[in-house]
Write a structure and sequence with these properties.
196 residues; 7 helices; alpha/beta; 2 domains; disordered N terminus; 6-stranded parallel beta sheet; 41% helix; Rossmann fold; 15% strand
Length: 196
Amino acid sequence: MIKKITKFRGIAFAAVIVILFSACGVKNKSADENSLKVGFDVDDTLLFSTPAFQKGFESSEKPFSGEFWAVVNNSDRGNSKIKKKVLQILEKHRVDGDEIYAITARKPNGGEGLKNYLNDALGIPKSNIYFESEGKTNRLQQLGIDIFYGDSDSDISDANAAGIKAYRIERSTASSYQKKYNPGKYGEKVIKNSDW
């Protein structure tokens, strides 16, 4: 008799919890329900890509020309390092059923190399990888991105302009690019310890 009462109380308690969560609008997230569209910047966010840029600067190509970008976009494999903390964040979103995008400020020259690498290394569909050298706001809005992760001031300001939640990824002190980096400038949360 005591076992039956205890079992009944357990079932009743579970039912009350479900009813409370339902009344508050809290739902268990499934792959089809309440999934988010999540965007990641590439350089100094998904990747420590200074080595790929060094390949571009060491080449005979004029810096920031189309040919330079073709070298950089084809030099991540074997050179750039995936940032472990950001990989954990990406994997958590994937487990939650969220759709993952990569949006970079790089020029698209030779971009298939970067797309192939991000697809192979991180499982991001090539169709979800975009090159937006003139700013990311319009693309973020067009795609309906809900959350964006980036390292630079422009990543955060572009997300703010698009009206979406932005998180700042701490840039490595070893990065060759130290401009446009003022963590917390827009009141955004800063994710620390994001080296490879």
